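ok so heres the complex, two chains, lmk if somethin looks off
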Amino acid sequence: MIIWNFGITGRKAGMHAFLDKNRVSAVTAAAVILAALGLYNYIFTGIYSVNIVKCLRDPEKYDKTLVEVGQDARVLDTGEDGFIIRHMNTKIKAFYPKTGSGMKAEKAARGSYVSVLAVFYKEGYLEIERFHIHKHRKYKIFISLAVAVAFTVFFFCFYRFDAAKCVFRERNA
Amino acid sequence: MPDLLVHTFSGLILNRLKTGPVKITEKAGKPLFLFLMGNILPDVFSKAPRILFPGLGAFFDAYHTPAGSLALCFLVSLFFEETRRKAVFLCFFAGAVFHLALDLIQKDIFGGGYKIFFPLRHEFNIGLVWPEDSIYSIPALFIIICIIYRKDIARVIRRGREELFS
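and the predicted structre for the whole thing:
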């Protein structure tokens, strides 16, 4: 009841933004707000967070800085002492810590996705503080992709695009 | 994020818990479908572009927040018929909020979380499971859905059989 059975039109609620006569301005406003939110996040995340691209661009400045490498980082190659990851189109070697052998028990395999919290050194490598292997991320992406495709197919089964008015209409309406 | 199948299954379960049998009103059109669409919308507009454009991840992350989802659902709803627009928006946004709420149970190694108060920078998560562990819950959720939707499934099968043999 809470979610579906509202059955209210934009007019009744006085929601002028939903009316056809205000549609162009509403679309423009929404697009501008979305762009502004995206830019805001991009700029401020860029300013406050440290990533490997920044570190490699200015190694002296970011020497011994803690870096977060997100879950879309991929292991390109592995060795006894660490692995090479690619993140944000940048490759970097990450070494397991010299102490704390417990971490070595779980070694990253080639091609796996990892999250890494590591210290950057000006010589151009990372020393891992903590890391997590996202073992089933590949399957997760495939499943999500299949669901997205299924939703797209269902959507066009239920709705058709009215190019003249630039709206989606229900097929059986 | 749990995968989109878990989000969809969770949405279906929530639908039954909150509303009983699926009710399709004239104004909302296909409310359950739209709610489920809203449920996957934050990931479709934030995670998918993030995979395609890794350097612009932070830009699209803004759409995986309540504020970003609100604007996104509003924009998408404007491409539906005028009489249904508000209902479509509410369905979408309810789905998106449920999606974001479900994402809060995840943990990461950085000790951060999701910016639920975005544009404020405070991050929060409950941190119970790793994001990819959601895959293990798919069989259990599927069984639950088969049980709670058994009458609807039986009706669809019966109708299909009737159409097939008529």
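quick notes: Chain A is about 30% helix and 30% strand. thats all i got rn
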